[in-house]
Write a structure and sequence with these properties.
This protein is mainly alpha-helical. It is built from 4 helices and no strands. The longest helix has 151 residues.
Length: 480
């Protein structure tokens, strides 16, 4: 279909003035300029509405993306907090180890002080209580060994605890990392799916709006063509009436001018006769003066008639100028009418070509579907015959026979489903073909083209006892 020619709209990147009805803006009348401005304002409002709509959709998508990014940053912050907590626990553990080591050092220091005190006391009372000193020394050595053993046991226990805590922390870290990675993947998959669904919805909405705009455009084109034809006929009749009236007025004015010329000639003759009689006949002066008064009155009427004649000539010039303007406008309208007829013929040729192409494609597709359906039916009949022969030739028990029959029923159900899908697909194609034919006939009627000039007939071939373009329930399409 040819694109809609928008009147008075500048193309992108063009510097030429906008053309409305084959006129530039400098040659437009005031009403045409106002209509042109109104159309431009309507286009501007519609473009603004579309821009606001797409801007809202873009802001919505950007908001979804910002929310997802913010959630991802929060998860990363939680991961950093967990790492920081692990580092703090490690630092606390190191501090506890240092505290235990400091305690051991204090114990050793206290033990050393006790040894020095005991040695001092032993040197003073060596001779008095050497045996007691040796006994005490042995006990102290035993205590030292027991303390060392306890210290080693505590160190080993602390090392085991530290290892266990490290293993638990590593396991916790790996578990948290796996959980966070899994959550991040789930969030990414969820919002990717949401984005895809949103894209599909936007594409469907855009296609629906484009289809509605095309339908409005086609209806507007047909309405404009009807309005232009009606306006052209009205203007043609109006200017024909004006032309006839002006011709009648011109003929009437010419007759009046001839009468005025005749009167003027008569008056001149009468004036000459009166002057001659005035020279020859001076005796009846009173009668002559009365005649002079009458002649002066006639002369006054003559001046008025002369002024009226000049006014009539001026009106005649104005009428001739208007007639030229009307003839020029008539030529412009004829050019526009020829241009619209050429566009209509071009649209008709393109539309006929598109209809023929769609008809050929639809017929080929219907033929392929019918052949495929017939092939499946023949294969099904052969399989049924083979199966009946197998059942007749084989002596199977009832259980195996029921199992085989169930499997056969499943296969037959799947084949029947395939056949129904093919029939539904064929019905949809026929429905689209019928809709296209109805639209084409409506367009031809709108453009005033008779339906006998189509050059082809709609398809109507039976498919499995159904009419072409009719579904299983007879509700998908009705053939025209």
């Amino acid at each position: 279909m040819a694109p809609k020619k928008k009147v008075g709209k500048k193309g992108k990147g063009s510097k030429a003035p906008a053309v409305v009805d084959a006129l530039s803006p400098t040659e437009m009348s005031k009403e045409q300029l106002e209509k042109h401005v109104a159309r431009l304002r309507e286009e501007l409002d519609r473009e603004r509405e579309e821009r606001n709509y797409f801007q809202l959709e873009r802001d919505k998508i950007h908001t979804f993306w910002e929310i997802t990014r913010r959630q991802l940053e929060e998860k990363k912050a939680e991961l950093r907090n967990k790492d920081r907590e692990m580092e703090e626990a490690e630092e606390r553990h190191q501090v506890e180890i240092k505290v235990y080591k400091q305690k051991v050092k204090h114990l050793l220091y206290e033990h050393q002080e006790n040894l020095t005190e005991l040695k001092a006391e032993g040197t003073l009372s060596m001779k008095r209580a050497q045996k007691d000193h040796w006994a005490q020394e042995m006990e102290l050595r035993k205590d030292m060994r027991s303390l060392k053993v306890e210290l080693k046991e505590q160190e080993l226990a602390n090392e085991v605890v530290v290892k266990n805590m490290r293993l638990k922390q590593e396991e916790e870290i790996t578990r948290l990392c796996n959980d966070f990675e899994r959550q991040v993947k789930e969030i990414e998959a969820k919002y990717t799916k949401k984005m895809q669904v949103l894209r599909d919805e936007l594409d469907l909405r855009r296609k629906t709006e484009i289809h509605e705009v095309e339908e409005r455009k086609n209806s507007h084109i047909s309405e404009l063509m009807r309005n232009h034809e009606a306006a052209f006929s009205d203007i043609k009749n109006y200017y024909n009436d004006i032309t006839l009236k002006n011709l009648a007025l011109i003929s009437l004015l010419k007759e009046q001018m001839e009468e005025m010329k005749k009167k003027e000639n008569n008056l001149e003759k009468e004036k000459a006769d009166v002057l001659l009689q005035n020279k020859q006949l001076k005796e009846p002066l009173q009668q002559a003066q009365e005649q002079v008064l009458e002649l002066q009155k006639k002369l006054a009427h003559y001046d008025k008639d002369k002024e009226a004649l000049m006014n009539t000539k001026a009106r005649l010039k104005v009428t001739q100028k208007e007639l030229k303007d009307l003839q020029w406008e008539h030529e412009v309208l004829e050019q526009r009418f020829s241009k619209v007829q050429a566009e209509r013929d071009e649209l008709y040729q393109k539309f006929t070509k598109a209809i023929n192409e769609v008809q050929q494609k639809t017929g080929l597709k219907n033929l392929l579907l019918e052949r495929k359906l017939k092939g499946l039916l023949s294969v099904l009949e052969k399989k049924e015959v083979e199966l009946s022969e197998i059942f007749a030739a084989s002596n199977l028990d009832p259980g195996a026979l029921s199992l085989v029959s169930h499997k056969l029923e499943d296969v037959l159900n799947s084949k029947n489903t395939t056949i129904k899908d093919l029939q539904l697909q064929l019905a949809r194609v026929c429905k689209a073909h019928n809709d296209m034919l109805q639209t084409f006939e409506a367009k031809l009627t709108a453009f005033g083209i008779p339906l006998d000039n189509l050059g082809f007939k709609p398809l109507a071939s039976p498919v499995l006892g159904q009419a072409l373009g009719q579904g299983p329930a007879g509700l998908v399409a009705v053939p025209t």
